Amino acid sequence: MTIERVRGNTTKILVLNPNSSKAMTGGMKTVIDSIDLPYSTEIHTYTGPSNAPSSINDGKDLEQSTKAVVEDVQNTYPDGLDYDGVVIACYSVHPLVSTMQCSRAYPKSVAGIFEASILTALSLLGPDDTWGIVTTGKFWEKHLADGVKAFLGTASTDSNSRFAGVESTGLNASDFHHGIDPEVVRKKLSEATKRLLSKPGVKCIAMGCAGMAGLEEIIRNAAREEKGEEFAYSELHVIDGVRAGIMQVEHMIRHRREIPGNP
Fold it and tell me: How many Å apart are CA 172 and CA 55, to the nearest integer?
């Protein structure tokens, strides 16, 4: 009798939180558990080292977190990351994305949750629909708006009829998990959502912070108050970046396996 394996391949994805907040990583786990993935797909999480910022709030924090994580990964995994793909779980134009994509020391399938949310949003829009982002502090409004245009290959001065822009809450990423009254979080996130929904055609909202994982209901409730039950729960798409990132990387891994010569 001859037995051979004819199909089956375990997929390992690392969700990398580049800040040092374990609470934020813990918040992502609720979303991870809700994703409908093949049983053979393993999801692992990583939290940045103690010298990484506890909350990434500006360009300096982006650079600091990149340096801290690269050094930590190189020291902890000298033979390279043993994963099929990596999700960079910071909603930004994070330097870690391009750093890992351009180095053979990391898996070939690497995506940021920001870039994954753009691809997801565009795939969900109808002919006259638009999408936008609700994020944390004021710094991110220009950073993310410019990032969308750069990712789509357009100049920062060009307009985009499908993109309704970015609205900020005035909060930091860490505020969503500790230190701030939950009612304050709800109020500020609701207000930013309503400002975005006041713009023409918005049918898709991306939650522009990994710390917002699990807060979709606040956005839908704000949409219900603004535009009614049917819109909020039957028409509006709310994109969680962590979910979008994992699904994007899993898709990338599958496609790379289609290339002749890849395992």
Answer: 7
CA nearest to 191, candidates 212, 217, 158, 219? 219
The predicted model gives 69-91 an average pLDDT of 93
Determine the pLDDT at residue 176: 72
**Angle of the 113-124 helix axis to the 241-256 helix axis, nearest 10:** 90
User: Beta strand pairing status for 41-47 and 11-17?
Assistant: parallel
Closest CA to 142 of 168, 120, 173, 174: 168
Question: What percent helix, strand, coil does the chain show, rounded to 5?
Answer: 45, 15, 35
In the block, residue with structure tokens 């750069």 = 150
Using the predicted structure, report yes or no on whether residue 240 has a pLDDT greater than 90.
yes
Contact 120, 248 (CB under 8 A): yes
pLDDT of residue 8: 54
Pick 40 or 88 by higher pLDDT: 88
Indicate whether 179 pLDDT > 70.
Answer: no
- Alpha helix (H) ranges present in 107-238? 113-124, 139-151, 182-197, 216-227, 229-230
Residue 105: predicted pLDDT: 87
